[in-house]
Structures are given as C-alpha cells and as structure tokens.
Amino acid sequence: MKISVDVEVTPEEMRKLFGLPDVEAFQRELMEDIRQRMVSGAEGYDPIKLFQPYVAGTMASWDLFQKMLTNAASFSGGSGEGQANELTPRSD
Predict the structure, then answer these.
(1) What's the CA dihedral at 54, 55, 60, 64 to 10 degrees?
(2) Cβ(44)–Cβ(52) under 8 Å?
(3) Reported pTM
(4) Residues in CB range of 30: below 8 A, 6 or more apart
(5) Is 47 exposed, middle or buried (0-12, 13-18, 19+ CB in 10 A)?
(6) CA–CA dist 54, 29 (Å, integer)
(7) Which is nearest to 17 in space by CA: 30, 3, 5, 7?
C-alpha cells in the first residue's frame, strides 16, 4: 500500500512549523553591509577582502571539524581482530 500526502505551505509556515528562526532581517542587514562595502570600494573592489570577515570564522570552524574527524579516525584507528581497543580493559 502506498499513501501519498500533499501539503501546501509557505516557506514561512514551514519554518515556524519546524521552529526555525526567522533570519530574513539578518540576511537583509548582511546584504546591505556587503552592498555598502562594494559601493565604498568600487574603484579598488577586491571581492576576497570584501568577504574575508564572513569567511574567516567559517574556515576556522572547518579546520576544527577536520581536526575532530582526524582525531576520531586515529582514535578508532583500525581496531580489527588481534588489536586491543583503547576503551576495553585488558586482562593481563
């Protein structure tokens, strides 16, 4: 048996249904800030410098995420047959 349900909701209604925050005002403010930076530096416009304050935090979190994955991989590091797992006590 296959049951199909179609629901028509606006993006705003869906966001409220899932309890997500309304970031529309934040997005408008961010875009206005970017636009002002572009207009003020139009003759020497450098997109890398323009977005650097926004990307710096993101890149730092990616570095932290990569370190976490690396540590997790090295911690579990191929605990197959014949190898002692670091979390299980050894019976000597």
Answers:
(1) 110
(2) no
(3) 0.37
(4) 54
(5) exposed
(6) 13
(7) 7
Report d(CA 30, CA 8) in Å as an integer.
Answer: 30
How far is 55 from 48, CA to CA, in rounded Å? Answer: 9
pLDDT single digits (tens) 30-87: 889 878 877 776 666 677 776 777 666 666 777 888 888 888 888 765 554 444 445 5
Single out the residue of 26, 3, 23 nearest to residue 11, CA to CA: 23
pLDDT at 87: 53
* Contact call for residues 87 and 72 (beta carbons, < 8 A): no
Contact status, residue 52 vs residue 41, Cβ threshold 8 Å: no
Q: Is 37 exposed, middle or buried (0-12, 13-18, 19+ CB in 10 A)?
A: middle
